[in-house]
Amino acid sequence: MWKINYQESLPFLKAYRGNSLPSDSDEMRRIREAARENGIYVSLGYSEIDIAILHLAQVLISPTGDIINHRRKIKPTHVKKLVFGDGAGDIFEPVTQTDIGKVGHYNCWENMNPFLKAYACCQGEQVHVAAWPIYPDKTTLNNPDPSTNVSDPNSDVVSPAYAIETCTYVLAPFQRLSQEGVLKNTPASKHEDAETPDRYNGHTRIYGPDGTLLAKPGKDFEGLVF
pTM of this prediction? Predict the structure, then answer.
């Protein structure tokens, strides 16, 4: 939706809105049940619909299937302001105490905001989920486009910097995009991207508290990263 003009994006925005989840939806209950069945914590970023407003939301689900943290991005940035509403102080807290430590999560730009970073650090965050959207790699960059429009700085600069500055383990997930996904979610004018979907993939990272790279998948990898 962000690679095309507003007029071109309208059909995709309509479908996107239709796929946005209420926090008490059947789809959310299925994800919670999956967390319970597998005995795992799940940090999920998603588009939340609340009455008539979309929010960039995150939930932390416990191994019992309970939502123990539900937050919304405090301020959508750039073109996202056309689609998403603001968060608020009563549904913003990023860090939650769990039996594996204090787990926090931020969305996209929030991971590079010094004030939000300090806020999570002051709460004693130990494990951080730095959730990022789909961006292509640096081979697509056309000067003078800013390098923040591609994935490499987020996965290889911002995420380890967060780890070093806060002394946290940082799990930095990116979505994976297939050729079919490109064809389904872009207008015909952008279908040339379907020939090289790997430019969107392989950016997930895990970093130690000293910024050491602990895990980095390949471009063709699809699975769990440890």
Answer: 0.92
